Amino acid sequence: MGRRDAYRAELTALLADEGAEAVRAYLAPRSGLPGPRGNLELLAAFGDVAPASLVRALARSDDEYERACGVAGLGRLLVEAPDGGPDARTLLADLRESAASEGWREREAVAMALQRLGDADPARLRDVVASWSTGPEPLVARAAVAGICEPRLLSDPATAQAAIDACREATALLAGVPPERRREPAVRTLRQALGYCWSVAVAGAPEAGLPVFEELGPPAADDRDLDWVVRTNLRKARLQRVLVAAERAIE
After folding, report:
1. pLDDT band at 246 (very low <50, low <70, confident <90, very high)
2. Most buried pick, 29, 60, 67, 190, via CB within 10 A?
3. Is this prediction's pTM over 0.90?
4. Which of 154, 179, 171 is nearest to 228 (CA)?
5. Count of domains in the chain?
């Protein structure tokens, strides 16, 4: 039994025997915080088994780890909600709000929620990402590309193409930010995400993705941020393998 399975079993027993407060007491000492890495296996297990009421409560918690657990768990509720219905619309609005949070763990939890949606219903994920990646909020676009640029999701050709499209749209959003705003934290966070998401997207669909990526440069001499995005992706081993296979030069 893996760690996620073990956590899931323990959480299920706690919910049956003691209830929500016992679960919250269980999460705190096992969160991995304070520290550089939260307990992602526990976070995922919570999203697997927690009742909707507890997921929603924790998504509004003042505690950093509880909030991440709740926000990531919204992904399961979204999977269970009828597409286009009021519950789905509310959940997407909540996730979009969390995507723009100042808290980076909360933002990461949004990407996890989107990936859970993508595992269950790739078409719905593609619709969300297409809507979010065009902006105007840099952090929401960042959530879109971080959510879909997950290798396990890109075995589906339509999702792989959607990842390329999302990276292109989010990069256009970055390029459209005036120079005087480029140092804003939200813009820098989007730039950081594009510094690895392009390599994932291109590796997922090389024939479609490589020509789009090559349109960016290098060098993107007229835009230092785009140049950084290109050069940072070129250092990724996954993209280097694509370039070697395509007999492209690596710079």
Report:
1. confident
2. 190
3. yes
4. 171
5. 1
